[in-house]
From TrEMBL:
Entry's localization field: Nucleus
Top-rank taxon: Eukaryota
CDD domains in alphabetical order: SPL-RING_NSE2
Biochemical pathway: Protein modification; protein sumoylation
Organism field: Basidiobolus ranarum
Domain SP-RING-type: 165-249
Pfam families per record: zf-Nse
Keyword annotations from UniProtKB, A to Z: Metal-binding, Nucleus, Transferase, Ubl conjugation pathway, Zinc, Zinc-finger
Coarse class of the protein's main subcellular location: nucleus
Family: Belongs to the NSE2 family.
Protein name: SP-RING-type domain-containing protein
Length: 263
């Protein structure tokens, strides 16, 4: 199974690391090897996604017979944690892969991975339940499906009451919220959000990316994302547009203040 090969890969790397007391260097071709480990994550994450579906279906069945859904609720939270762990590892490996393919040397690669992983995992675990679960789209989906069983005509009350919902934070709780387009790497212009993976882009850039692929659905340009995006999956994201605008304004004000300080 794919899980085993991920384990094997880290064991191999450990052996390399321990076989020599000098720093181990990897040539850029090693990046290809890491890339093949990374594909294992896609199938693991697909299985995680299926788990959400199964838990939700089971909870709806339980709710229909007025049985306790709380254990499944806890189950969804555990799956969210597992998904976060996988995504954090995937992101780190991706980063290492890119650095190695650029010819960069990372001494003590295994230790580097372990340290970095410990840091990001700590960060994830230190987040409030609110951020980790209540804003997670799969948890919201689970809750609303269960809610609908006994309240078919009423919308579910919000799980978190914080006025305006922070869409980006809600769906990408494992990543740093970014106001930059992953394609242009500059601030989002006319931001649109893919409804299949919730990644956001400058409209022109992502439409160009999809057209360039000459297929109906192009692979999401965000590294580590395995989804395919169609133009019809893109929805304008007004709250994100507003936040970019606010951020840029606050930056301008700061610059003005600095300028005043110098004078
Ligand atoms: Zn994506």
């Amino acid at each position: 199974m794919s899980q085993r090969s991920v384990g094997e890969s880290s064991r191999q790397a450990t052996q390399v690391d321990e076989s020599t007391s000098a720093e181990v260097y990897f040539d850029p071709t090693y990046a290809t090897k890491i890339g093949s480990y990374l594909t294992d994550f896609d199938s693991l994450l697909n299985q995680v996604n299926e788990a959400y579906g199964h838990l939700t279906e089971a909870a709806v069945d339980l709710e229909n017979i007025n049985s306790d859904t709380q254990p499944l609720d806890e189950g969804v939270k555990r799956v969210i944690d597992v998904e976060a762990q996988l995504k954090l590892q995937q992101r780190l490996l991706n980063d290492i892969k890119m650095r190695i393919s650029r010819g960069e040397q990372i001494p003590n690669l295994v230790q580097h991975f372990k340290n970095e992983y410990r840091n990001v995992l700590q960060k994830w675990n230190s987040r409030s339940e609110d951020v980790r679960y209540l804003r997670n789209e799969n948890y919201l989906e689970f809750k609303s499906k269960v809610w609908e069983v006994n309240h078919p005509n009423d919308p579910m009350p919000p799980l978190v009451d914080d006025g305006e919902q922070d869409e980006d934070l809600m769906v990408m709780s494992t990543s740093t919220v970014t106001l930059k387009c992953p394609i242009t790497t500059t601030y989002l212009e006319d931001p649109v959000t893919s409804q299949v993976c919730k990644h956001s882009f400058s409209k022109e850039a992502i439409v160009g990316h999809i057209r360039q692929s000459r297929t109906v659905a192009a692979s999401c340009p965000v590294s580590g994302c395995s989804k395919y995006i169609k133009i019809s999956d893109l929805k304008p994201n007004k709250s994100l547009a507003r936040r970019v605008k606010q951020w840029l304004q606050s930056q301008e004000e700061e610059e003005e203040e600095e300028y005043m300080d110098v004078e």
